[in-house]
Amino acid sequence: MNDCSSTMKPINSRSISVQIQTLHQRLLHALNLGTRYFDEKTNTWKWQCANIEVQKNVLRSINAFLDSISGDARATRHTIVKESVSDVLGALLCILEGKSGPLLSMASNVAVKLVSILPNSLLQSRIVELVCCLSSLISSHQVEVAIDCANALNLVVSNLSATSERTVMEALKDTAIASHIVGNIKDFAGGAKKIEYFEQMGSLLSTILWRWPQSRFPVSSDVKLMKALADMHMVTDSSVKLVLLKMYTSLALCDFVAKKLIEDGVFVEMVVQAMEKSNPQVVRIEGFKLARCLLRCQENFIRMRNLCGDALVNAIICGMRETGLSSKKGGINHGSLLLEACQLGLITRWDGDHHIRFWEHGIDRVLLNLVLENIQDKSSEHVLSLEEQISTANKSLKSNYHLGLRSYLWDILGCLMIHCGENFNPYTYGSELHINTLITCACLTFVDTIQKWCRICQNDVDDNFQSEPVSRAVLMMIYSPCNHISSHARLVLSDRMKVIGIPSLKSLIHTLDYTSSLASYGSSDKLQLVINLIGLNSLSSLPEYQKCIIESKAMKAVVLIVKRCLSNDIHMERPSMAPHLLTSFHERSCCCIDKEDWEGSNVLLFYGLWALSSFVHQCSLLQDHTQKFTTAVTYIKAQLLNKLHETCSSTCLSPGVRWYASYILSYFGCYGFPNELAKWIGKSLNQEEYADLRLIVANGASVNVNGVILAVRCPSLLPREILTSSKNCEEGTDKYGETMREVRLSAHVDYEALVLLLEYVYLGCLQAEEDMVKKLKILAKRCNLQPFLQLLYRQCPEWGTPFPCLNLTSALNSVGSCFSDVILEAETNELVGWTCNFCSNSVPHSHVHKVILQSGCEYLQGLFRSGMQESHSQVIKVAISWEALIKLVQWFYSNNLPNPPAGCLWDNMDDEQKLFNLQPYVELNWLAEFWMLESIQEASWNVIVSCLDSARHLSARIIKMAYNLSLWKLVDIAANFMAPSYRQLRDSSDLEEFDEALVHLIYSASIRFAQEGGNCSRSRLGVKIIQIDDHLYLPQLYWYNSVFGYFVGVNHHGQSTLLGCVLIKNKDIQSFKWLFEYWLYCMGENDQKGFLSINVHRCERTIETCRPTTIYRNWNDFLMKYGVGGNNWLSELFEDRHLRISIYLDHHVWTRMKSTQSSERSRKQKEKEFHVADFHTIIPCATKSSIEAQFQHVYIHEKFREVQEQFREKLNILDGGSIIQPSFSPYDA
Question: What distance in Å separates the CA atoms of residue 379 and residue 21, rounded to the nearest whole number?
Fold first, then answer.
């Protein structure tokens, strides 16, 4: 032990006052009254003293010293402060841990002062000890102590650095701090504590919830706590309201909690009231923050809009009218009410009737007052001319009024413009002057932006933050469905581009062409691409620039951009170029599955497709450019057509991207919305099997259809009595499928148009010539197929319109119940109270349709056609649980397998709940193997692996399920997840209940885990192969449902040689493709000249695809190609193929290699014969060469004969009839 003075260095008196030096000396003297010792457990120096008076003296000295440096930033960074912190903390921790009643209050007060004055960086060395100590006192019976400890903890946690946050939060987790605080708040609700107690506890809880996502769901699940908080909604004390709002904001960072909160109408009303003008500004700001946190996704917004849409809009408008001095010219306070209101105003990006409410509340006037300074109300005066509007806007924009808000204002304005209806007249709700002036301001700013960004080299852009928002806003104005808005936007833009128009456009196209072909992109390059694409789209709407664009190289540049985007070569998310969209809520959120905005995550792809659609549209309209249109169509068809079809079908892309891809395809005669489900269902069109309706036109021609498909996709084609019966059907299945019902259509229905329309109904898309499109328009209009009509008329996609998809799940309800012709029945489950809406059967089941089942499953198709008893049964029993059956049926009708609970909901389930949710996917994985449902097998596999990855301890239970179902692939992955804990499982005897084979698998996985350095990844095992020869073949055998393949070649001895082997889990083309590509890689890209395989048909297709230079011969292919499969002579020839194969392949050297070389029995027999001959006979040497003698000793007879012949020809030198023997040295052959 030693005293504290031994660690102190001489004081550097520079930059600190004499008072601080004096108080520092007193502090040292007080600390020296205790003892300092080294704690080996914590590896730190600690202070101790049992004398209460000494402890009081130390606390007073610390308090005085902290007061002296308070408010002096230079003093807190001084050397004497830095060197004293460790000892001060040690003494304070010693006193707090002693929990002496008389000293706790003083010590906790000093702790608050310490963490509020000293930065966290100085406390870093002992910050974990400090938070643990304070946490232990958070529930102290001394209220003042608990308040101070909560306050101190809040200060520490609020100022944590990114490096220390995880360590500190783990320490707090170990102390169960959240549950202690929750208990304290519930005690306060009982009325026994003062308001300050709730304020500090609530503030600390909100801070912890903000930084510790795992705590949100458990806290929100405390029923008593949430009830206590709900009871405080009507409290008038502003400090309580403030803390309450902060707590709700932190809780709502979990999307599951946010959804749960919004379902409560009383809670939503409280949130809106908090934003009202009657509250203090700090409360209103926190109310806006809570609303923004709740409304991070459209689904939550729709719920809140339905509950209090008008009040929400009114609160935003009132907040945006708060234009105090603190938010003027660029010096905006980012915590201000105005900023929060503008951020919440971005709810205009979603479609809905709230846009009308914004106009009704005077949003035009509010936006104009925020864009222009000192704008006078001239609504009562005459309308200003365009020149006057431009002059007024130019003067005001130069003042940079509210420059920090411009990005939000342009976004709000653009969204309001694009979501107007076709017949909407904004002047009915707002002032024509205000709206026109706003459009003028946006266009002026946009033109300046275009001029700056159309140069290849530009570094003088000082307002990048508003470049994209204002450009986007002008584009939305130009393409607004409202004619008043779009026409005025084009008028202003055309006027401002008069002088600089063509030169700027050519410069823009040149820059676009240059940047589109860059090898790599910085953020500035991508922003430039976006601005130029938006500029091209905007200017292409003006007739005076369309010819210039069509005749330029803009199209090729745009096509290149789209191609690169679709190949993931370029990607640009909007928040990365619009920083105002990046908020702390998105960074701290958990469980938020926020759907993409309409334009998607890659805005370059979206604007590129928009530009391409504008180009094709303009070419088609200009009659004097028909040749140009034909050339453009040909070029796009060659470059992008297949990619556009894939884009439409991809569910990973946004609705806007898919809409524009479909719109472009309409110019190639392809109309509709292709998707994967339609590929199955389309096979049933006009097939008599399973058809229950025959549509007959006036000339007698007919088409066989399925009532359930029409009921969902095109009910207008069904008679009213059938639709009525489907709505009223309640008992069993009305057997329309047993007899064909005839439906005679109107005499006006054209047969060819009807067939094409049915193609759209079944397939989602169709190919049609222009003359047929005219007939289709009439029929589609009568059937009220609006999205389809939009493509037939080639109308530009409307912003925010959902992308149509073929989803038949509504057929499972009353719409398709009367067409049901079969029942899928699950294994008997103990489902209490389960009832069917259509029949009295109490066993869990689902009324389904054969036409849909057989379309998606070849197994069921074969079953229904087999003629067996099951094919005629109305009930098919499926050996899976009801939970699995629900998901199976959902997949059949939507091509989408529902996901299990995720995020916080999954993390907070107990093991039994997790297994209950996971078991249906294991069952589906098993069923999919028998029913040959590859896509559902893959989808269920991905779900299982993902869930096991987040809860690896469940692998022990899952591996048993998989083993019992013979799911060896799943057994393997579960064993890999169990590998790290093999020793613990073995030592705890948990493996005793496993079969020996399972234990061996887990043990093997643990060995691999150890060999790989503890890396339990799910990556595929690599295969190390070396090159020996050019000729290989691949037999196969099975091990745990895996394929073991070995590569065998022929060495220069003419003998079979094992070159390498591989284990693959699937026998699909992708697996074989991976195998051969990796094989080629391991062989140094030196491909084999020949390849033979045995009965591996997928292998054949793979080799043909990715190994075109490899010679491949397969007997079955030969027979199929020439149609001689039944020829007896050829069959006998095949039996003796080992004698003749070299004849048919003599144009390549196969080194006597045959596909029968893999026969183990024939190989052994041949070896025995060779060994007998070699043992009992000797072939004499032809020369006296020692080299030949070595070959004689090493080689087998057959091979030695070949060498001997070569030896005679090449090594013997003939000279005058005598043989001259050269001199050689012996070597090892």
Answer: 69
Helix (H) or strand (E) holding 212: none
Distance, CA of 768 to CA of 792 (rounded, Å)? 10
Distance in angstroms (rounded) separating the CA atoms of residues 803 and 662: 10
Q: Mean pLDDT per segment of 10 residues, for the chain of length 1229 residues?
A: 46 68 90 85 82 92 91 83 88 89 90 90 88 92 93 93 88 92 90 87 95 93 93 88 96 93 93 93 95 92 93 95 56 69 95 92 92 62 71 76 88 94 78 88 91 68 75 95 92 89 90 89 88 94 89 90 91 87 85 77 94 87 64 77 90 93 93 90 87 91 93 90 61 52 89 94 92 93 94 93 91 87 83 80 89 91 84 89 94 93 90 94 93 92 92 91 89 90 86 85 87 57 32 37 72 70 70 73 64 52 54 56 64 54 43 45 54 63 73 74 73 43 37
Helix extents (H) in 70-100: 73-76, 79-98
- Find out whether 669 and 769 touch, Cβ atoms under 8 Å: yes
Chain centroid, CA 374 distance in Å: 47
Q: Which strands, in side-by-side order, build the sheet including 741-744? A: 702-705, 693-696, 741-744
Residue for token digits 């996901």?
Answer: 899
DSSP for residue 601: S
Q: Going by C-beta distance under 8 Å and a sequence separation of 6 or more, which residues neighbour residue 343?
A: 288, 292, 408, 580, 583
Which residues does 517 contact at the CB level (< 8 Å), separation at least 6? 557, 560
Query: Where do the structural domains in the chain lie, given as residue ranges?
Result: 263-324+333-361, 391-585+597-652+659-666, 669-722+739-806, 811-1012, 1040-1092
Helix then strand then coil, in percent of the chain rounded to 5, is 65, 5, 30
CA separation, residue 70 to residues 120, 147, 173, 341, 1025 (Å): 15, 22, 32, 36, 70
Residue 168 in tokens = 């500190």
Rounded to 5 degrees, φ, ψ at 825 are -115, 130
Question: For strand 845-848 and strand 822-825, is the pairing parallel, antiparallel, or unpaired?
Answer: antiparallel
Residue 1218: strand pairing partners: 1215
Rg of the chain (C-alpha set):
39
Tokens standing for residue 421:
């209806």
CB 612 within 8 A of CB 566: no
Q: 485-491 contacts: CB < 8 A, separation 24 or more?
A: 485/417, 485/420, 485/426, 485/435, 485/439, 488/435, 488/436, 488/439, 489/417, 489/439, 489/442, 489/443, 490/541, 490/542, 491/386
Task: Give the whole-angstrom CA distance, residue 333 versus residue 327.
Answer: 6
Q: Is 319 within 8 Å of 341 (Cβ atoms)? A: yes
Fold match, 669-722+739-806 / 811-1012: yes
- Cα→Cα distances 637→342, 550, 631, 794, 810, Å: 44, 17, 10, 18, 37
Q: Is 1085 exposed, middle or buried (0-12, 13-18, 19+ CB in 10 A)?
A: exposed
CA distance linking residue 36 with residue 47, whole number of Å: 5
| C-alpha torsion sign, points 89, 95, 96, 102 | negative
Residue 73 contacts residue 112 (beta carbons within 8 Å):
no
- Are residues 344 and 292 in contact, defined by beta-carbon separation less than 8 angstroms? yes
Q: How many helices (H) and strands (E) does the chain have?
A: 61, 18
What is the rounded CA–CA span in Å between residue 483 and residue 485?
5
What CATH topology corresponds to 811-1012?
Potassium Channel Kv1.1; Chain A (3.30.710)
As given in the structure block, the two tokens for residue 614 are: 């504008």
Domain 669-722+739-806: CATH superfamily, name plus number: Potassium Channel Kv1.1; Chain A (3.30.710.10)
Q: Are the C-beta atoms of residues 1123 and 1014 closer than 8 Å to each other?
A: no
Angle at 94 between CA 93 and CA 95, to 5 degrees: 90
Query: How far are the Cα atoms of 254, 290, 438, 714, 1120 from residue 220, in angstroms, in the given order?
Result: 10, 16, 45, 45, 67
Instruction: Show the tokens assigned to 864.
Output: 């229904």
